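Below: protein 1.
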Amino acid sequence: MAATQVAASVLARARSGDGEAFRQLTEPYRQELQVHCYRMLGSVQDAEDLLQETLLAAWRGLAAYEERSSVRTWLYRIATNRCLNALRDSSRRLARPPVAAKPWLPEPTHRGSEPVWLEPYPDLLMADLPDRAPGPAARYEQRESVSLAFLSALQHLPARQRAVLVLRDVLGYRAAEAAEMLGTTSAAVNSALSRARATLAAEVPAGPDREAAPAPGSALERQVAARFVRAFESGDIDAVVALLTDDVLLTMPPLPLEYRGAAAAGNFLRAPQMASCHRYVLVATRANGQPAYGCYLRTPDNAILHGHGVMVLTLAGGRISGLTRFTDNALLPVFGLPRSLRYGGPARRPGNTLTAPAS
């Protein structure tokens, strides 16, 4: 049976109420739809919630699917509009926890007016992402479109502009297709895209940095990451600063604070609550296609390490151009990391003697 006939058969069975057929119809797009929702919302949990809302809406609305577009495009239309509804829903957005002041922090180089609601996204959730070629209008490759720099810049866009930019420049839909998905005109899409690109250009530095990051898992990436871990865990702030680019950016979402430049980042790391960073142990993971670490704070007897959030590195060549610190411990389980660990002492390397404590 030809592929088109198989697809038609699956769709017909799904329309008749066959849940397994519906799963077969939508499962190939599940992971990329969740990443799409993450780009739109900046939150792992919100992305999962909106994915479920999208699939439920698709199941309920399957009878109205007219097959004028592919199933994939139809699902993206539902997901995008659900995300827009969520972004407009003030009760959902105001449910975010308040941002506590940190009086010990040194003065930043820039202080934003609004919290930056952005979380890291585990690479494990993208491991089986289909390698689909984006449409001809796409400007960003898959790797760049999930980077923290790109996602952080997206958060500065109004919801409609954010949707247009993702549909056009990340997924590569044509203006007419994006207009159909958003229920608007091609002229409105092009206007929103122009404004979104201008904002993004101001937020994400242009130039060679877009291509400067070493390949994931490469020898250079491993070398830089290993040097950082050694310096950070030993509390050697000078060695950490020596690894930073001159224009490094240190941020701590959701705090709307930026520390731009090696000197400002060094001042932050030397602050009283950070100067004792030799009390930390870093456990390697990956987020947004970048090296990342679960951060654990040693207790005085070194027996138990308590979780202290996640840190993500952005690399440029052989140096670090970005340090993003997320202190929410709820992120640790998202990365498959426990909230606390037993510690085997300084001799843990090259072997790893970190284990989850007995319950």
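Below: protein 2.
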Amino acid sequence: MKSDDCIIAVEDEIAELFEMTRRAERSYLRTLYRNRAHYSLNQNDGIEHDVIFVAMSPCEIYERKATFEELYAAIATLPELQAKRLYAHYFLDMSKSEIARAEGVSTKAVCRSIQYGLKSLEQILKEYQLL
């Protein structure tokens, strides 16, 4: 017992509740240890990074590059305004209202343009897959 500790008398029911909580916590810690589940995402030991960011194989890297090239080529075939709006919304992460403000048009016009652009893009990409 430390010199600054103090003893407080409590009822038996409360003391038993404290003891049950202490036992439950010890049991929980033993279970964690036995199941080798004693890792914490707050530990900064890189476990969560390894789980989330799995290294890609060279084949996967090539496939991703080819897919992006097809996507950029398909966007390039769209009318210039649709391509710019799609690029601004999906690649530059601009909201439709921000695009509308920058172009001085209504948000509805931008929404319609993006919607038509996506439909056209879908058709173009389907043709790429057939070739």
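DSSP finds six helices and no strands in the chain.
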